[in-house]
UniProtKB/TrEMBL annotation:
Claim: Calcium is one of the keywords in the record: no
InterPro entries referenced in this protein's UniProt entry, alphabetically: Aminotransferase_I/II_large (IPR004839), HTH_trans_reg/aminotransferase (IPR051446), PyrdxlP-dep_Trfase (IPR015424), PyrdxlP-dep_Trfase_major (IPR015421), Tscrpt_reg_HTH_GntR (IPR000524), WH-like_DNA-bd_sf (IPR036388), WH_DNA-bd_sf (IPR036390)
Keyword Transcription regulation annotated: yes
Taxonomic classification: Bacteria, Bacillati, Bacillota, Clostridia, Eubacteriales
Protein known as: GntR family transcriptional regulator / MocR family aminotransferase
């Protein structure tokens, strides 16, 4: 089991490497154990394949693992004198966590939703319908950009709900924010080197872009979102914003300020990464 957090400045591939190394040294991963494939582990952790590959390469270089052609990576034998005692871990189960929440009238944890808010029955029905309709399609290798039918549905949804005019070819489906930023960062790195992020703000963008050697600058947030004057002083050319529901303060950026942000991007030849987090919800103060 892997636990990745945003604390500290340690790159994600180092965190993965150190956790696997600890599992090997404590005997949790005994010699000859086959490690998860790069593809599977990156999907499990919602990180890019490059991140996992860097971690495996480091373990390989240090002699903790070895590779077999067309088979993958395996744990190498470690001299018993270098093994450690298993680390004691204190875990709180999901059930215990949910029971703790019952003592509060309102649970403001951003990662917890009301159990009754998800349409389980409808989701189950649609899932079964999809399995019945086209089993051959589900068993085939998918498009790296995302299933084309799904992208068509997203295109229609964006047009209907957000007034966004785009083609399915302009849509890329990723396995979460961290994965999408891990794809985007090396592309932007070709022409940009400085990223501005909201302060306070979500830790993931900072971690991902720092892992790709970007210079990170924080920009203060006021009651109508990002402070544009402060942004201009940073000399950054890429900015990450959550305008519809600023995380974690919940502020909404008005249209006039969004237009000014676009003007800023045009003036510096910059890029706006808009995380439309929670736009479906209307925050009423």
């Amino acid at each position: 089991m892997f636990i990745l957090d945003g604390q500290g400045r340690q790159p994600l591939h180092n965190k993965i490497c150190n956790q696997i190394k600890n599992q090997i040294l404590t005997g949790e991963l005994p010699p000859t154990t086959k490690l998860a494939s790069i593809k599977n582990l990156s999907s499990e952790l919602s990180v890019s394949r490059n991140t996992v590959e860097y971690a495996y390469q480091q373990l390989y270089a240090e002699g903790y693992i070895h590779s077999k052609p067309r088979s993958g990576y395996f744990v190498s034998p470690i001299d018993p004198e270098f093994r450690q005692s298993p680390l004691r871990q204190v875990c709180t189960s999901l059930k215990e966590g949910s029971e703790d929440g019952k003592s509060f009238a309102f649970d403001f944890h951003p990662a917890r939703l009301s159990p009754g808010s998800f349409p389980v029955n409808l989701w189950r029905k649609l899932y079964i319908d999809c399995l019945k309709d086209d089993q051959n399609h589900l068993a085939s290798d998918g498009n790296q950009q995302g299933d084309f039918d799904l992208r068509c549905e997203i295109q229609r949804y964006l047009s209907r709900s957000r007034g966004v005019s785009c083609d399915p070819e302009q849509i890329v489906v990723c396995s979460g924010l961290q994965d999408s930023l891990s794809i985007l960062a090396p592309i932007l790195k070709e022409d940009h080197s400085k990223l501005a992020v909201e302060d306070p703000g979500y830790f993931v963008p900072k971690a991902v872009f720092r892992n790709h050697s970007f210079s990170i600058t924080t920009v203060s947030v006021n009651s109508d979102g990002l402070d544009l004057e402060c942004l201009q002083n940073t000399k950054s050319t890429v900015v990450y914003v959550t305008p519809s529901h600023q995380f974690p303060l919940g502020y909404v950026m008005p249209v006039t300020k969004r237009l000014k942000l676009i003007d800023w991007a045009e003036s510096v030849g910059g890029v706006i990464i808009e995380d439309d987090y929670d736009w479906l919800y209307k925050m009423i103060r």
